[in-house]
Every structure is written in C-alpha cells, then in structure tokens.
Amino acid sequence: MISAPVTQTKRYTDLRSFLQRRFGCRVHKIALDAHFTCPNLDGTKAVGGCIFCHQGSGHSTVGTLSISEQLQKGKAYLRRRHKAKKFLAYFQRYTNTYAPVEDLRRLYDEALAVEDVVGLVVGTRPDCVPDPILALLQEYAQRTYVSIEYGLQSIHDQTLARVNRAHGFSEFLDAVHRTAGRGIHTCVHVMLGLPGETKADMLATARAIARLPLDGIKIHLTYVLKHTVLGDMYLNEQYRPMEMMEYVERVCDFLDLLPPSMVIHRLTGDPPRDLLLAPQWARHKWQVLNAIQAALDRRDSFQGRKWVPDSSQ
Ligand code: SF4
User: Which residues surround ligand 1 with Cβ inside 6 Å?
Assistant: First the structure.
C-alpha cells in the first residue's frame, strides 16, 4: 500500500509550489480580457453558451484597457497585496484562441513584452485549437512558460449535451493528443456536480483524465449564477447543487485517482458574489479548502493513492 509522504503537508501537488519550483519565486497569474468571444455564444457552434456560463468565465472590469495596461494594473495590485515578483499573463475570458494566428501573436507578444511577465496561460475550448495555433504556442513554449487550459467539464457526452457545451469528449481527446509533445503545460478543467451526474460519472472522468498526457487540472464546483439557464433550472427546482461535504468527499475521491505528478491548479470554484444563487457555501472558499484538507487527512487520502498507471503507454 502506498503511504502519503511524511513531508507532504498538502497531500497533493499544488500549483503555487509547482510555480515556485519552476521560477524560484512566487509567481502570480493576472487574468486578462482580450475581448474575445466564444463559438458557443456567437452561433458558430451554438447560441446561448454553456448553461452555467455568465458570458465567459470571469467578469470584465477592464473596459477598453489594452493587454499591457491590464497587466500593469494587475502587477501594481499584486505587488502591493502579495509582494509578487513575477507574473503570468492569463488569457482567461471567453475563448482565447478564437482568432486568426496573427492576431493571437500580436496579443501574446504584447503580454510577454511587459516587464516581469514570465509566461502565458491561455484558456480555451478543445474545438478551437487548429494545428497552426498549437504551432504558434509551441513556438512561444520554446522560449518561455506556456500553459493551455482546455475546458472539458466531463467526459460524458450526455452531460456535455445537457449543459450545451457544443463539443464532445472526442474533440477534447483530439486536442490533447495534438498538444502533447509540444512543450506546452496542458491543463484540463472539470466540474463536479453537473446536472444529472452521479458519483460514478464523476469518478469515471477522473479515471479517464488520469490516463491522458495532461500536466494539470482545475477542479471546479458547479455553482449557479443569476441570469443563466442553470439559474432558471435551479429556481424551477430542476437542479440541486451539491452539499459542501458531498463536494469535499468527491474532490478527495477525485484526487485519489489522479497521477501524483499532475499539478492541481484549483480545488473549487470562486463564484462572483453578486451573481451567486447557490450554493451559498461556495462563498467561503477557504472554508471549503480547509474542509478538503481535513477530509484528506481524516481519510488518509492523497493524490495518486488509487492511481493505476496506464500500462499501454
Ligand atoms: S465555452 Fe466558456 S465562454 Fe463559451 S459558453 Fe461555455 S463557459 Fe461560456
């Protein structure tokens, strides 16, 4: 039986420590809005977007600020608040590869030209990374840190259809395999508590992800925001969000199944307070994180405890 390393305080490979090892200092992400849209909102793939989406992840508070202006503003804030030294330009809002290659190059160049910006993080959909865009990111990855974040949420096509993702698991697999070997840190987003999903469904997602060439994962809680389809479902009692301890146990189960080397970028969501309908406990991120840590300790769970290496690789 594998035992948790005695020096391991967190029982999982956390992003902060990973970045500290990579860069030798504290590195903070600065979330950017490059004024993209999304093929799931503009009609190219579908309209209306994912049922939980409030027009892209993150709020735009940047108005017409350019990428470099957003970075300067973020740097000043993080330096004041956290004494941060180095930064990653996080292209977060909407679908950040949804533009011609030359437009993307201009935006990424602008970000990397800002002093103390040491890398790029690009959030996107798996159906929005044609090979020329991956080749562009690979080019940057040869000289700096580059991470791509693919929104998947679940491996189950029925669930993806239910939440109107407008892509399936096969498109995610295709994107991940085309990204592998390019020197790009590849991260997947999953959501626990999606409508209709059982414990077995969520853990099947963990097992499938554990076999793929992925470097990192963000585990999100499905929370309900005002002015969304999921919000209407919740108000009509067609959707029930997870209870906090149910979520905490599922996260522990999920971590047990992941390979020890996979970097855990997130263990819960961080909902916008003014838009949150439910669950109310999601407002207290640190309570949730502390409860996860306590449950990992109580269960003697840790990342990789039940991971089964893929012998076919
Ligand atoms: S893919 Fe992202 S931005 Fe597009 S609709 Fe879904 S959550 Fe919103």
Answer: 38, 40-41, 49-50, 53, 56-57, 94-95, 125, 151
- What is the pLDDT, as a whole number, of residue 2? 47
d(CA 33, ligand 1 centre) in Å: 14
Residue found by looking up tokens 């108000």 in the block: 235
Put simply, whether the predicted model's pTM sits higher than 0.90 gets the answer yes
Please choose from 37, 94, 149, 223 the residue to mutate so as to test ligand 1's pocket, defined by most ligand atoms within 8 A of CB.
Answer: 94
Q: Counting atoms of ligand 1 from 1, which one is nearest the CA of 165?
A: 6
Ligand 1: residue whose CA is nearest its atom 5: 49
How does 69-94 read in b/e, with b if 16+ C-beta sit within 10 Å?
A: ebbeebbeebeeeeebbbbbbbbbbb
Ligand 1: nearest atom to the Cα of 125:
1
| Alpha carbon of 291 to ligand 1 centroid (Å) | 29
- The CA-based angle 169-172-176, given to 5 degrees, is 140
pLDDT attached to residue 61:
57
Q: Where are the domains of the chain?
A: 15-299
Q: So what CATH class is 15-299?
A: alpha beta
pLDDT at 64: 85
Report the separation in Å between the CA atom of 141 and the middle of ligand 1, taken as the mean of its atom positions: 25
**Within the chain, which residues score under 50 in pLDDT?**
1-8, 56-58
| Helix axis angle, 67-82 to 101-112, nearest 10° | 40
Query: CA separation (Å) from 236 to 50, 230, 231, 240, 289?
Result: 18, 10, 9, 10, 30
Cis before 272? omega within 30: no
Beta pairing class for 117-124 and 145-153: parallel
